Amino acid sequence: MAGGGVETAPPGLLGAVLIVVLLAVGALFLVSGTVGLVRLPNVYNRLHATSKATTLGAASMALAAWVYFGPAGNGLKALVTVFFLFVTAPTGGHLISRAAERMGVEFEPGVTWPGDDDVESGPPADGD
Asked: Of 38, 41, 43, 84, which has the maximum CB count within 10 A?
């Protein structure tokens, strides 16, 4: 095998069905996240669509790779990918939405930042 990779046994019928299901679920979530990114009205709604739906979609695709490659080698890389997706996507989404709020991007009417129910929108108290 070129590249020195580890040979993997082809998945059985159950593995092939599971891979197809995971790929279909992943594609569904990725498409819905992409549609949300294009169609939703502001940065907060778009972040919601992309951070949740595309994380689940990409994780589903990586799990399909784990089923295909097995628990070692490339399969382990796929599991690590899932772990980092679930750690970094919510963190990144939160940071982007916090930055948008600090830049003055308005919320939808009736929506406030969590914990700011009694405080009017303004510059942060710590001077950042």
From this structure: 43
